[in-house]
Design a protein that fits this description.
Layout lengths: L1 E6 L3 H17 L3 E5 L6 H4 L5 E5 L5 H12 L4 E5 L20 H20 L2 E4 L2 H9 L4 E3 L6 H12 L8 E6 L6 H5 L2 H10 L3 E6 L15 E4 L7 H6 L3 E4 L6 H4 L4 H7 L5 E4 L2 H6 L7 E3 L2 H13 L1 H18 L2 H19 L6 H43 L6 H25 L1
Parallel strand pairs: 1-2, 1-3, 3-4, 4-5, 5-6, 7-8, 7-10, 8-9, 10-11, 11-12
Length: about 425
């Protein structure tokens, strides 16, 4: 089997849902390829792979071509996501939109609409949690769950961090690793309770990593709040290992939060740090309460669990060690490899069908490639014409500078010239 991944988004989501999957497939002897949506090599890949996985890809002409070729060959097309991106009707619940400018938010919403179109064109969905799978089925698509798993390199980084001796002392560090500012709402659900805890226990300090607004309730404790910038994932285990308790709050009444995976628990467990997490679908699946971590659905439950962990170092050590054993048993690549191979095999068997004659497929691919090449050539020619027109306008503007002596006119023209120059540079950059 050969599997073709096309990923429409980078960062940790691509790492977990494409690169980690590729590592798992390799362990099962399955070949895979990862491409960007605009890579011309897709026209070569489409006739040679047995399954297509579209990871959060917006619908666009090249993807339409790719899906058409796979359909003609009788191969399954799979939508892959770790987030509730196929439900545009829920866009207003996305906390990430809080961090964007109006124009960026408009583009994000449009992109999400096109991602939902891709979802609608696929045979089935491969996703991270039961909640997401159920949501996909409610939107009309059969769904399969392949939970996020760690990579070999993550394990190596975590083992180095876990093995390093640490002086804990009397101080108890609670840590929250937010990554992006989109988690402000999540953290706000526990901030007042954390303020109560820090009032009661002077030995408690709070470590906040990433882009986060701690909120007004924690302002009186600024001297006991440590901040760290967002770090690369390779450095994250070292930061987590310095904590005594990992915090994983989410908005329980937000469907986007319910859809999140349990990876914050997994990453902390790799270095033996216990987690208190909101009782969302994924955390309920992953955590055995009182054994490998704690689940909280109310402020009182957060307070009770954190109080127990702050007061009892032996409990922290026991929970952290049990969580580490549980994650090693269920989330390592060699464990995930078998289930991923079996899931993809089942998808191929269920959604594959007899292909069209070979010459029809070849003609389809050739025709699509020529059409895309012609469209690209036309777009390039149009950009060149626009650049030439702007160059002429720029030259004319610059030749007229000084013709009028009024300072206001000169300043206005200078600003216009600078704007035209920037436009020309952007157009030239788009052509290169």
């Amino acid at each position: 089997m050969k599997v073709l991944f096309v990923s429409g988004i980078g960062g940790d989501t691509r790492r977990y849902r494409c690169l980690h999957h590729q590592e798992q497939l390799t362990l099962s002897g399955i070949t895979s390829t990862l491409r960007e949506p605009d890579d011309p090599a897709l026209y070569v890949d489409a006739p040679t792979h047995d399954a297509l996985i579209l990871h959060r890809v917006a619908w666009q002409p090249a993807i339409a071509d790719l899906v058409a070729v796979m359909r003609a060959r009788g191969k399954p097309v799979i939508f892959e996501t770790d987030d509730l991106v196929f439900a545009p009707e829920l866009q207003d619940r996305i906390a990430y939109l809080d961090t964007l400018s109006p124009e960026a938010a408009r583009r994000f919403r449009n992109d999400m609409t096109q991602v939902a179109r891709t979802f609608s064109e696929c045979d089935c969905v491969l996703t991270t949690t039961n909640y997401l799978a159920e949501a996909a089925e409610e939107h009309g698509k059969p769904a399969f769950v392949q939970r996020n798993a760690v990579s070999d390199e993550m394990v190596r980084c975590a083992e180095r961090a876990h093995a390093r001796p640490r002086e804990r002392g009397e101080q108890v560090t609670l840590a929250y690793f937010s990554g992006t500012g989109s988690h402000n709402r999540d953290f706000a659900t526990i901030a007042p309770m954390l303020a109560e805890l820090m009032t009661r226990y002077p030995q408690v300090v709070l470590h906040l990593s990433g882009h986060l607004d701690a909120g007004p309730s924690l302002q009186p404790f600024s001297s006991r709040i440590r901040r760290a910038p967002f770090v690369a994932w390779q450095e994250l285990p070292e930061l987590i290992a310095q904590a005594d308790i990992n915090l994983a709050p989410l908005e329980l009444d937000n469907p986007f939060c319910q859809a999140k995976s349990e990876i914050k628990y997994v990453e902390a467990a790799l270095v033996g740090v216990p987690t208190v997490a909101s009782a969302t679908d994924a955390f309920v699946h992953a955590i055995r309460p009182g054994e490998t971590g704690f689940l909280a659905a109310t402020a009182d439950e957060w307070r009770d669990h954190l109080t127990a962990l702050v007061e009892d170092g032996a409990l922290r050590a026991r929970i952290g060690a049990a969580a580490r054993r549980a994650v090693y048993a269920a989330y390592l690549p060699e464990v995930a490899a078998g289930s991923l191979a079996a899931t993809l095999g089942a998808i191929v068997a269920r959604f594959g069908h007899a292909p069209a004659p070979g010459d029809e497929v070849a003609t389809l691919v050739a025709g699509q490639f020529v059409r895309r090449w012609q469209e690209q050539a036309a777009a390039t020619a149009q950009a060149e014409r626009q650049a030439d027109e702007l160059r002429r306008a720029l030259a004319q503007r610059e030749s007229q500078r000084g013709a009028n002596g009024a300072p206001g006119v000169a300043e206005t023209r200078a600003a216009q010239v600078e704007l035209l120059r920037e436009i020309v540079e952007r157009l030239q950059g788009s052509r290169s």
